[in-house]
Design brief:
Length: 384
């Protein structure tokens, strides 16, 4: 009878896995900070010095006229910042220490933004905004300190993420999570992110005090017919859609329900676009962006993505880069749709200036975030 080998002694408990830093939280914190800066200083021109020091807003009396809407939006705007700071510090700094550091960061960021707004004529520095921003940071920091262990160490959502998504998906999940939000700001072409030419033309016009149209200069006064506008929008929409879906697809493991997840992402993105259009303009304009060119682009882009989402991840990343670059180049060379310009003139931003600034930031820079992720050195290191 053979002898049984001795098994190693057991302690009765499984070894605990040491908590890791959250790439998702750290990348999210950087992007959200840029979002706050852009929203606070939008639209970035007509700077002037009125003779007040940087910190003058702190010494002024509280404003006589304010609304509950302003208070709530200021609190909500900084709440994710406080939570993300605490999550980004985990596990090196936890609990009260992490919350206090997050509050200090929120006070520094908000104070800097209010001080810089002193030099912008269309923004008003306010100590009430400063107080409410800090309040939002405090709420987020306390919530983050209480929830960091649940979300970062023992969450069912975390286990689901580990089962469906690749190990280094944190950066990509942030980028893909921002894609539906990047549709909120009105765009001349569906998924036409990164349209810098009109913005640069506007800035140069203010700087040189003369009208400047960079798109016209690049096109050399070439006129577009209606059919050419449709074809341009089809190309922009198809490349933007395929690039985004391929970016999301390369994050997924083989056992993930790939088709279902990508369809849900697309549905959420189109729903965000429709909801924003209905709120900004009128309910009957909720689907005004669904032009013949956009419909053709959705069809072509879906066909492109459906044939490539099961390709190797390396090929998906490369094709996503090509698609996003093609969309970016096309949207900056094609003139802005005249119908879109007429529609945008009826848009009164009013009290939503901060929100619209944040939405504009995402509309401009989402493609760059996606390209940063797709070209990140971590992919090359993983292949070696």
């Amino acid at each position: 009878m053979p002898l049984n080998k001795e098994s190693p002694p057991t302690t009765g408990a499984e070894p605990e896995t040491a908590p890791h830093v959250s790439t998702f939280a750290r990348v999210g914190l950087v992007m959200y900070s840029f979002l706050i800066v852009y929203a606070s200083l939008y639209p970035f021109y007509n700077w002037r010095d009125i003779g007040l020091p940087f910190w003058a807003f702190l010494l002024q009396p509280l404003p006589h006229y304010w609304t509950g809407f302003d208070v709530i939006t200021n609190i909500i705007g900084y709440l994710p910042f406080g939570m993300l700071v605490v999550f980004a510090l985990h596990p090196h700094l936890r609990g009260l220490a992490a919350a206090l550091l997050a509050m200090a960061c929120g006070a520094l960021l908000s104070g800097t933004m209010e001080g810089v707004q002193t030099y912008l004529p269309n923004r008003v520095s306010s100590n009430l905004d400063f107080i409410t921003n800090i309040s939002g940071t405090c709420i987020g920091a306390i919530a983050g300190a209480r929830l960091s262990g649940i979300f970062l160490e023992q969450s069912r959502l975390l286990r689901l993420r580990q089962r469906w998504f690749v190990d280094d998906a944190g950066r990509g999940l942030i980028v893909i999570g921002l894609w539906p939000l990047a549709q909120i700001y009105p765009q001349s072409y569906l998924f036409g992110h990164g349209q810098f030419m009109p913005l640069l033309s506007e800035w140069l016009s203010h700087l040189l005090e003369t009208p400047v149209d960079l798109v016209t200069l690049l096109r050399r006064d070439m006129e577009f017919s209606v059919q050419e506008y449709w074809l341009s929008e089809t190309i922009i929409t198809a490349c933007g859609l395929a690039g985004a879906l391929l970016t999301a697809s390369c994050l997924l493991r083989k056992q993930a329900p790939r088709t279902v997840l990508l369809l849900l992402l697309l549905a959420a993105t189109l729903a965000a676009k429709a909801l924003a259009s209905g709120l900004f303009f009128a309910p009957e304009n909720a689907f005004a962006w669904l032009t013949p060119g956009a419909k053709g682009g959705l069809l072509v882009g879906a066909m492109m993505a459906s044939g490539l989402i099961f390709a190797p991840p390396t090929m998906q990343r490369r094709l996503a880069v090509v698609s996003l670059l093609a969309s970016f180049i096309a949207v900056n060379l094609v003139p802005t749709n005249p119908y879109f310009v007429a529609t945008l003139q009826a848009w009164i931003q009013g009290k939503f200036l901060n929100f619209n600034g944040a939405a504009h930031f995402l509309s401009l820079f989402w493609q760059f975030f996606a390209l940063w992720f797709l070209l990140h050195p971590a992919h090359r290191l993983k292949q070696k």
